[in-house]
Amino acid sequence: MKVLSVASEAYPLVKTGGLADVVGALPAALKPHGIEMTTFLPGYPGVVKVADAKPIHQWPNLLGGGEARLMSGNLAGHPLLVLDAPGMFAREGGLYAASTGGDWPDNWRRFAAFAYAAAEIANGAVKGFSFDLLHAHDWQAGLAPPYLRYAAAPVKSVMTVHNIAFQGQFGGDIFPYLDLPPEAWALNGVEYYGGVGYLKAGLEAADAITTVSPTYAREIIRPEFGMGLEGLVATRADSVFGIVNGIDPAVWNPQADPALAARYSADTLARRAENKRVVERAFALDEDDGPLFTVITRLTWQKGMDVLAGALDALVGMGGRLALLGSGDVALEQAFRAAADRHPSRIGVRIGYDEPLSHLLQGGADAIIIPSRFEPCGLTQLYGLAYGCVPIVARTGGLADTIIDANAAALAAGVATGIQFDGATHESLTYALRRATDLYANAARWRCIQQRGMGADFSWRTSGAAYAALYRSLIEA
Asked: Which reaction does it catalyse (predicted)?
């Protein structure tokens, strides 16, 4: 079976978040199941560099965005296709927004053209390429299933929602430029409250919908999580599947990670102490035997960072320290800097993102705090499990699916892997931090939680099998 995976980013070529990790890992996860996955990416400058210089297909003026060429390449040993469209993707700044702030004003055209090209490739327009199924990821690829549908293509499609909060909504005035038939301007087409909804359109047109955890699949049919699309998702409930993300053990492996000062396994956890000392020095923190917490995230309301900022005085009062790596809302960045000023040597803040440093934090901190208001899957808690960095998580989405709370029964049975709490509130988070501090004081019990987490299998093996089974069910149907 041949599958075209359509996404706006993929690790290690281009990454802004967890979407890239998932897209980058899927081809290897599916190969053992007899599925060849080709990844299709926009031609950002860094991506075009890895593509073959010889174009294999051309569009003279792709959806009015200028000349575009299709290039071939390689993504970690798997097929890669790149849309080299300089007028839309060869620009300085972020993938979706200018460096000065604000989304690129032509994002509607950029990702409509990307989806249009994906549908044409999947439908056999490019000589030498044929596919059985198209797998679209998030709103940036959301128009690919509708383009297949209105072309009456025989190719099946899957739409994966990595975060339903990001929907790709644009004004209705763009519809005439999308090269869709008039009947697509309808409630069961691309129209959404008088505009065009890219994710909404993909959810309508795809043969199956997946989310990145079973709990999130259930949550997004509720108004507090569905972000306005809960009704549509509910009507398609029989075609919605929750498949939890995995992590790549070749990238996230504390026994071989070059970013760590000391490598270790579940049997040699004492070696983590060296990483902890390095983290303390990097963040100008006191070196002591108390718990060292970390946060590695976008600083946003969704991630519950406002709640954490309000709990930092309590965290320090419990004898804890915090090393934070992240960026996001300016007000939240300022709140964490202010906390670091109030508690020098107890709270350290690094604004920005640093991939090697994120590995070191997982390998050196005692626990990672993830107080999200909603979390489709989450990957940092999985990295924490793999590295013996105990996750402290809100009971929502993929966090609820992947962490076993250290309650009395789980501790007695020896199955606990972390700490869960209900609701992103000051009271619930503070209580969870107190539980963590008390558990940490019992070294043997804490080590048991670490080892249980490190022994869990969150590789792509199970998730890859689930995607393969879904693909085959659609093809056979």
From this structure: [(1->4)-alpha-D-glucosyl](n) + ADP-alpha-D-glucose = [(1->4)-alpha-D-glucosyl](n+1) + ADP + H(+)
Q: Which residues contact 242 (CB under 8 A, 6 or more apart)?
A: 210, 211, 212, 213, 214, 215, 216, 217, 218
- Check whether 15 is labelled as a binding-site residue: yes
Domain with 318, as residue range(s), is: 269-455
Same domain, 219 and 290: no
Asked if 111 and 224 sit in the same domain, the reply is yes
Cα 183 vs. chain centroid, distance in angstroms?
34
pLDDT above 90 for 18:
no
Torsion, Cα 4 5 8 9, to 10 degrees, reads: -120
- CATH number, position 290: 3.40.50.2000
Write the burial class of residue 388 (CB in 10 Å: 0-12 exposed, 13-18 middle, 19+ buried).
buried
Q: What percent of the chain has pLDDT over 90?
A: 94
- In this prediction the pTM is 0.91
Residues 19 and 135 both lie in one domain: yes
Tens of pLDDT, residues 59-86: 999 999 999 999 999 998 999 999 999 9
Residue 381 belongs to some domain of the structure = yes
Check: CB of residue 166 under 8 Å from CB of residue 191: no
Are 399 and 375 spatial neighbours (Cβ–Cβ below 8 Å)?
yes
